[in-house]
Amino acid sequence: MTGRGLKVLALAAALALAPVHGGLKAQGLVADASRHLVAITTGFVGTEVLLFGATEGEGDVIIVVRGPARRVVVRRKGRHAGIWVNDAEMTFRDVPSYYWLASSKPIETLLRPASVDRHGIGVQHLRLAAVGKVDADDLAGFRAALIRNKVLNGLYTVRPRDVNFLGQRLFRSTVYFPANVPTGSYTVHVFFVRNGSVASAQTVPLTIAKIGIGADVYRFAHASSALYGLIAIAIALLAGLFAGVIFRKA
Amino acid sequence: MQIYLPIAEISLDVFLLFAMGGGVGFLSGLFGVGGGFLMTPLLIFIGVSPAVAVASEANQVVAASASGVLVHMRRGHVDFKMGSVLLAGGIAGSSFGVWLYSLLRAMGQLDLVISLSYVAFLGIIGSLMLGESVRAVLRRGRAGAARRKLHQHTWLHGLPFKIRFRKSKLYISALLPLAIGFFVGILSAIMGVGGGFIIVPVMIYVLGMPTITVVGTSLFQIIFVTANVTFLQAVNNQTVDVFLALILLTGGVIGAQFGGRFAGRLPGEYLRLLLGAFVLFVGAVMMFTLVVTPEDIYSLGGGVG
Description:
heterodimer, A: alpha+beta, Immunoglobulin-like, 2 domains, 6-stranded mixed sheet, 4-stranded antiparallel sheet, 7 helices, 34% helix, flat, B: mainly alpha, two-stranded antiparallel sheet, 5 strands, 70% helix
């Protein structure tokens, strides 16, 4: 990892030191990821991806990684006749299935509140819209619960001071994807911040996909579910009969 | 060694799963039960979603029952006629059960119904078993207990559509095994069990079937009922994890062999006493999870779309 990291940094340095072309000058920022495809194979236990880049001039960097948007149902339990039962629920749409925020300094010292809100930076500023008519008092509780549970599952993370600068222009940060990471198209937003507002931004695509036997099994189970069911039964029957025969001889 | 389970969508330790299969297999060999009622709660406990746990466990029970039924078939202890009637009810019941399962899941009440079913049935069966075996242990030593009648005649014998089951020496209404099969089929789909721990006592005490044909016949029908559950869960919910089922059943078959050998060393009533206590214990743990104040009263449901 470090060897690769160094190579990547060397590349970033070369980019930064190269004669300034139009694109870089206008953007004031270049950024990339050490890989654009994270493969979930049978041995997958979570992985890290290195994000790196260079800025033009001094400033700070905020990195936001978002997973594909999903619809999430949040349920609340209440006590009825001595047992805990789900008795209320609220559905949120366009909830990022994964959210990672890293910055070179704490967000509140970098950005003015208006900018934070406009760019939706930080879990408290996510636009989580409830479906249907909801009670305003309830909404706050359900919204907080959604974020709290996502943080607990390791899917929402905030890491102030986790973007490291080497010198004044090269930066790097490591994003971690846990074993339960949802698959799909991710976006990495890199913000270059100067004087309390976003000076420029860049988006890097990232895909998380299942690869290998596990992925084939998953696809097969969804595409031809009837045949998958029959094969599952056949495997179980054969394994059972096989075991029965072996252990009779033993 | 961690393995990523493609349908369950989590990474679990292969050796942990293997040990769970072996442990539950040992108990099932020891007591002569399927073990689904232990495995499903264990899977949920280690983080497998209830949907995947129930469906994959049904798939594993297919294998466990298939390996168990062979011995009984060879000895001629399977009443195929009775098994087929139970099975007809079981197929209808388990199909209804899978439908009910999907409905409850959408309503967000699936976990509650699974827990309540466990509390109710494990509580009832465990208490009955414990009571019966304690009486048997107390009777032990008092020799020459009076020979009982084959079975008592009740209103159940007045029901229509009577069929003669030669192997089981019964002449009863087909509605009885049909209804039993239907009921256990529903439980099989919702609780992820074969249902042996319910169907065996019911066949003995309600139908009055001779004990010798009960286990083989119940295993015979459980194969097909759990196969039906596996198929319907695969089609409707895509929640059957073949990898998970395979690891569990490998451990399970080996454990069952050791359990079976161990069983011969203990007298029957002590075995039933132990099993009764164990079943009650699992029921009590389930009850505890319902009553104790949860750490977070909020929980996240399925993220679809």
